[in-house]
Specification:
Layout lengths: L30 E3 L15 H6 L3 H11 L4 H6 L3 E5 L18 E5 L8 E7 L2 E8 L13
Parallel strand pairs: 1-5
Antiparallel strand pairs: 2-3, 3-4, 4-5
Length: 147
């Protein structure tokens, strides 16, 4: 094949023949949404992104989301970084917000900025929808053990 100057080229390329890189397996990594964030709860001490920033928890939250974004939902659950409870808890300082469907799988991201800090929300497939910021672990109140 000759180029514009009339010289023969070593390589020839056929048009529209590029082969795409084939990925052997696609991992559905976790994604996060804040579209349902409710900053008015819990009633006795509401929490917001601004209050988390003031208490230096926002950085820990962003770092946790960054790390979890490298995992699948199954990997995050097996590593106990996300716990899925299912129904909205009966023993809680929060109330079910009207803008969230009644039939979602509620869960938490644990250990944000320490032992107590959690993010409560729900999961649909591989997306975690953040609904509550919960620095005092009051979303899913459990009985104290070994006290």
């Amino acid at each position: 094949m000759a180029n514009k100057r009339g010289r023969k080229e070593k390589y020839s390329r056929k048009e529209n023949t590029r082969e795409e890189l084939k990925v052997s397996s696609i991992r559905e990594l976790l994604t996060f949404s804040f579209k349902d964030l409710d900053e008015s709860q819990p009633k006795n001490s509401p929490q917001s992104i601004k209050s988390w920033e003031q208490e230096k928890l926002l950085k820990a939250l962003v770092e946790k989301i960054r790390d979890l974004s490298k995992l699948t939902r199954d990997e995050a659950e097996k590593q106990q970084l996300i716990k899925v409870y299912g129904d909205f808890p009966l023993k809680t300082d929060f109330f079910h917000p009207s803008h969230v469907n009644e039939h979602v799988a509620w869960g938490v991201m644990k250990k944000i900025g320490g032992q107590k800090g959690t993010i409560a929300g729900y999961l649909v497939e591989n997306t975690f929808y953040v609904v509550f910021l919960d620095k005092e672990h009051k979303f899913w109140i459990s009985e104290k053990k070994h006290t």
